[in-house]
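Onboarding guide, step 5: your first structure request.
Type a short instruction followed by the sequence, for example:

Predict the 3D structure of this protein.
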Amino acid sequence: MKRRRTNRDMIVLGGWLFADLLLGMAMLFFAANTVGAPLPTPTPTATPNELATAVARASRNDATATAEAQNAIATISAFSTGIAESESSALQTVEALATADTLAQSAATATANALATEVAMTAEERATADAVATAAALAAEATISAFATVQALNLADVDEITRQLATESALATEAAIAAKATIDALATSESLLATQTSVQATEGALVAAIATANAESGANVLATANAQATEVAIIAAIATENAVSGANALATAEAQATLAQATIDALSLNQASSESERATAQARLEVVQTAVAALSTQQASSAATATVIAQQAAANSLNPNPILETFTVNLSGVVSGTTAAVDDARQELDRVLAPYLEGEGCRVGFALTSGNSATVPEGIALSRAINDIILDEYPELFGDAALEVFAEPGVTPLGGVNLELFFFVGCVPSEVVP
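The system replies with structure tokens like these:
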């Protein structure tokens, strides 16, 4: 059964007819306007600029390769020479930073070139370039982080080396102060020894002058000529020479007496000799015998005098071999004068000095006192405190002794005390301190 047509269907049909009419008229007008005119230039299909793209890619790849090579070289150079010395480390850090700046400038130039050529690229090429640029940026960031790490390590090394140099400088300063104190102590010791030697030489010259005066006056020819108080060997030699001279004089006198006696005997046998000749010979014999007796007495006196002088000189001579005594005290307590610490130090001195206090003929002529401490002033203070105790408590042993102090910084145990004692010759300790 067919559908019945309505007014609406007629309207639709009329619309389509009107549209077809308009389309036909448009084609008619278009054809009328193009009759006799040249054909329009066709729009060319867009093609990629392959040359520009290749150049851009080559430039980008060259810039990236150069930057990566320079980064690798700078990194290797920084790591190979970064920890040698403080000055070299600082210089290398500056060079590395300059290299980083150069690389940053090169990267910026390459980025500008890439942006200039990016206009001619397609969307795919731009995406590729962006990916490459992102990778290069990440590599540059990693390189910069590595440089920052190396710089931090170098700065840490510089700080450590600076601290070490400061420590070594402080130790060198303390060592120089200790050395100067030791040199001053030795110089003082040499000065004291030189003064003592000068005094002894003066005494020896005085003895020699007295002996010469005695010889000129005839009072004592072989007494104490040219004797020196502390030169035991010289005195012994002089005494030996004097003894030999006296023996020669005595032998000469005895020979003269024998000759005079022989003359008297000969005159007695010769009856022709006069009484005056025999009397003269007898008188000569008596004179010679008197001289022999005087020379014998003088020789014995000279030997006794030389022995006494040698003993006195030996008693006033220092033994060149020092005796070392060591003990440990409370460093801070002794320096500050704490009663308990001072008493403990006195007990230690009683222990180490007991053999010489109870011995025979023990007198100290010179003593060096050193204290172990952290610093030089503290060691000097400890040595002086010990010397004060020594002079107060043991005057019979250190009455006329010269005492010197010095410090030994950094030597353990802290509070250790070393006594170098130079005794006069003839000291016999009662026992050996363990």
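Each response can be followed by summary notes, for example: Residues 123-217 form the longest helix (95 residues).
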